[in-house]
Amino acid sequence: MKLLKPSWVSHNGKPIFSVDIHPDGTKFATGGQGEDSGKVMIWNMAPVLREDDEKKEHIPKMLCQMDNHLACVNCVRWSNNGLYLASGGDDKLVMVWKRAALIGPSTVFGSSSKLANVEQWRCVTILRNHTGDVMDVAWSPHDVWLASCSVDNTIVIWNARKFPEMVSCLRGHTGLVKGLTWDPVGKYIASQADDHSLKVWRTVDWQMETDITKPFSECGGTTHVLRLSWSPDGQYLVSAHAMNNSGPTAQIVERDGWRTNMDFVGHRKAVTVVKFNPKIFKKKQKSSSCPYCCCAVGSKDRSLSVWLTSLKRPLVVIHDLFDKSIMDIS
Questions:
Q1: Global pTM value
Q2: Is the peptide bond before 164 cis (omega within 30 degrees of 0)?
Q3: One-character DSSP codes across 97-149
Q4: Is the model's pLDDT at 240 over the cut of 50?
Q5: Least C-beta-crowded within 10 Å: which of 72, 109, 171, 258?
Q6: What's the CA gap between 32 and 45, in Å, rounded?
């Protein structure tokens, strides 16, 4: 297991709440707190992956910095086609960014000229409907819809082909909605909230398909985020912040009948984020190949575990990665 910690990826010492790797793997975005605003930053992946590139001065580390959000940014997510970046923040706004043609050198406002933006990303639309902090945003498969959820207890579905058109507002949670995930074929969207429930909604009529509460009934306390994740084969939905015999778990929900018989156990504190690798892996066996998925779990206990659906135990557990709770995984 190789662990790299690029110290230069920072929001000037302010918290980073979200990270997302671009679909083509060449860059990644972070979102969090800025000086007196919310900050979205886009970073080059090359100096993370190659030590030689990290040392070369002509290879940029930061590609773009955007300070348009009026308050802390809680979530950044690339569209599946990689053309757009969506961000949601405490200013109740969702912003959608698109790369613009470079017109001469641009510098970050109010900074020394050294911090030139290598790429120009501009805000192409601002989505306003939420009456509270936006906690999570998620693009549907094929980028048909963009979903956002908020501490106003709602989930808003936007028409991603006709921004800022709103398709639906999903009401049913009685607590702050803190996480969203689409199933890989776009038939369902799942949400998790502080009301100790995980809800699955149908995209045909935007009505609730199922409401799962049992694994969350014991949960005391709250977490800043509840980032759940759907496996790329569509078979499993894994929640944050569940409990089993008063121990923190990530609950595994099976698509078949929404059964809740399995979970990921071992974290000492509440699970805050679960993220599946978007690819399905194949184990070569003598006669057949066995497909499996890979999933990472992050917790308030500052540790990260990586699981394969083909193994009973975690592949690896890394402790004390950070000084505070793990907020996002990509």
A1: 0.92
A2: yes
A3: EEEE---S-EE-TTS-TTSEESSEEEEEEEEE--SS-EEEEEEPGGGSEEEEE
A4: yes
A5: 109
A6: 19
Collapse the DSSP code of 215 into the 3-class scheme (helix H, G, I; strand E, B; otherwise coil) and give the result.
Answer: helix
The two structure tokens encoding residue 86: 């969506």
Q: What are phi and psi of 328, to 5 degrees?
A: -160, 155
Eight-class DSSP state of 280: P
Tokens of 320: 């004390």
Dihedral sign from CA coordinates of 99, 102, 105, 109: negative
Q: Are 295 and 307 in contact (CB under 8 A)?
A: yes
Contact 264, 277 (CB under 8 A): no
Per-residue tokens: 152: 């106003």
> Residue 71 has what DSSP assignment?
S
User: To which residue do tokens 């086609």 refer?
Assistant: 81
Query: Do the Cβ atoms of 46 and 62 come closer than 8 Å?
Result: no
Question: Could you tell me what percentage of the chain is helix, strand and coil, using 3-state DSSP and rounding each to the nearest 5?
Answer: 5, 50, 50
Over the stretch 4-20, which tens digit does the pLDDT of each residue have? 889 999 999 999 999 99
- Answer whether residue 113 shows pLDDT above 80: no
- DSSP classification of residue 268: S
Of 137-146, 152-161, 295-304, 307-316, the least confident: 307-316
C-alpha distances in Å from residue 4, one per residue of 49, 50, 139, 273, 323: 9, 10, 28, 20, 16
